Amino acid sequence: MLGKSISDPHGVDSSVQKVDGLNFVNVQTEFSKTKRTLQVTGNTLVDAMGCEGDSIFGYEVHMGRTLRAPGVQSFCKISGALQSEDGAVSPDGLVVGTYVHGIFDAPGLFAW
Length: 112
Fold this sequence. Notes:
- By secondary structure, the chain is mainly β.
- The protein contains no helices and nine strands.
- The strands form two sheets. Strands 1, 2, 3, 4, 5, 6 and 9 form a seven-stranded mixed β-sheet that branches. Strands 7-8 form a two-stranded antiparallel ribbon.
- The chain starts with a strand and ends in an 11-residue tail after the last strand.
């Protein structure tokens, strides 16, 4: 929703195959047929927001994949068996998107 577009080529969530996003971050999302839900932990990678290295935890929910355009910064690095980078940050650092739900439950995260 925060990116350039959302595609649903398999009709998983809608009969509409592609919609424009809000274009806050330079990413494109494509739904797949399966949904992934799991508990995750990790650390933020974002310095512009004053929270680089902060711990996060929550649950990840998504159906598909989001592709960041070259140069788009990831929001966080997921730890554990599924090590990966997640999310995206707008060029001005004011908009962050992530698949990790519940991140605001972490004490001190984004507490300026």
